[in-house]
Write a structure and sequence with these properties.
Layout (H helix, E strand, L loop, with lengths): L1 E5 L10 H16 L4 E6 L13 E5 L7 H18 L4 E4 L12 E3 L5 H4 L6
Parallel strand pairs: 1-2, 1-4, 2-3, 4-5
């Protein structure tokens, strides 16, 4: 199985909440599942420390998604092209954003638990 992972928040020496979550989660998943190929999708040059095993293929996708307009382009134009090119079976996005322009099965990870603490705000 080929699994694409949105790893654009894996930034060397700049990991924050979602970045740390992504790092720790996929460090383990990749090593525990060498039978699968993981495409790590970056929006800039990646650090070798994020290529956790031989079953990880880093892919740089333009443009760097650091602004809401560029997020839209990155997720809805650039990512679907890569998913199609590599014949991806699953797209995982640990930062909560998904592409609206792909038929590839996708897994959206919601990093925040506010909805558990304040259920009245969710309808």
């Amino acid at each position: 199985m080929t699994i694409a992972v949105n790893t654009r928040l894996l930034l060397k020496d700049k990991l924050e909440g979602i970045g740390w979550f992504t790092y720790q989660l996929f460090l383990r998943i990749v090593r525990q599942h060498p039978e699968h190929t993981f495409l790590f999708l970056f929006d800039r040059k990646w650090s070798k420390e994020f290529v956790f095993a031989e079953n990880v293929i880093p892919v740089k996708i333009n443009p760097p998604a650091r602004h809401p307009i560029l997020w839209h382009w990155w997720f809805n134009v650039s990512v679907p092209r890569v998913l199609k090119k590599y014949n991806v079976d699953l797209f995982v996005s640990p930062d909560g954003y998904l592409s609206l322009n792909t038929n590839v099965p996708s897994l959206q990870v919601i990093h925040d638990l506010n909805f558990e603490h304040f259920p009245n705000f969710v309808k």
